Amino acid sequence: MVSTGAVPNLAFRRLRGQRSAGEFAAAVRRSAREIGEQVACDARYIGRVESGEIRCPNYAYERVFRHMFPGTTLADLGFSPRETVRGRAARATAETPPPPTPHSDTDEESDVLRRVFMTSGTTAMAATTLGPGGSSAAAAAPPDPRRVGEREIGAVEKAVRQIRLLDDRHGGDGLYRRASGPLRAAYALLDSGTATRRSTADRLHAGAGELAISVGWLAHDSGRFEDARSHYAEALATARVAGDAALEAHAFCNTSFLARDTGRPRESVRAAEAGQRAAQPLGSPRLLALLALREAGGRAGLGDRTGCERAIGRAHTAFGRGPRDADPEWMTFFREAELEMLQAQCWSALGDWSRAARHALRATRLQDPHFTRNLALYRAELAWDLARAGRAAEAATAGHQVLDLLDRVRSTRIRAMLAEAAGVLVPQRGVAEVRDFLERHTELAKAAT
After folding, report:
1. Cα-flanking dihedrals φ and ψ of residue 328, to 5°?
2. Is 367 helix (H, G, I), strand (E, B) or coil?
3. CB-based contact 256:265 (threshold 8 Å)
4. In whole angstroms, what is the distance from residue 340 CA to residue 363 CA?
């Protein structure tokens, strides 16, 4: 009989050296930020690796570890080859129920992705969390109050990460409705009230609130503004109930963004200011910088140029303090490119089109191509600003670059921005570059209807 006991990963433990598991986890997160990866590494994860519970990391962690220890292989790091872990899991599924450990972190995340985002219906998350088989009976059942624990909370947290990953690459259209079911199931877990440990209850509140914000963002990006407003309000209420300042700051950040996009600049300013108050004790200058830019966007919408410039100045000061371990996981998108983009939007709202175009151009040049949706967004902003600045040929070129990405990115917001730029360019149809862009834009718009 083959033992299923986990084998400690001594090689990985040696690499940690004299650092505590918490210190090493912080180093992993810093390294992830350096290469644009998104991992939620903590001491518990390091412990799972060193105990052998995680036999093979997912691809994101693998890239981070190889960045930290150049020239190493998975074997050097003490992990099993990915193909052997996957093969073992496949055989176990075919022959016998898989043991709870050891397992592959990749298999676990792939399972969440498959069952949460590729399963229709409103109880997809229940299928993920309420039984290893994922049967229809399990999916239809309400959460089992005896089983609201690590497995269920982990599934909620993974759902949040997968939504963010898919949104970064493809935009909100098409994801929103599939993500609403997991959100309802997450709140059903929360409402069951059976997480007896305070730490477990806090994680469940935070996970459900972050999931509400993520689903709200998908609604926001796909033009479902009232749905987005409702989800953000739900997240804010969850934060207030749990006394979670980080979740509260995130909810206010998105609420401010939505208010700006829907023509309520005064509300945008108030929400951004409330977010800054919540974020002040959290120790994340980058979060304060983003909230200051949200405030700047609202003030630009009010025509308050002086207030906008002051808020931008505070944002630059905070951003210049650099990343910290306290930076929220969801803020991986907020880099210098996003800093430039948000400034472009401010100057655009104030009617300074040439200045807006300069910032938008910098954003497109700085943006990591991994964030496909944001790259399309930045180029759409550039096309709009150039068109309004009277630089028609350059605007058409930027417009073509957006169209090149729309087979991969589905975002109502980006399409609307590009349509506005095309509308501004219509009087310049006599310019060859503009004519070609308008014809192509019209063809693709018809194909999309």
Report:
1. -60, 150
2. coil
3. no
4. 5
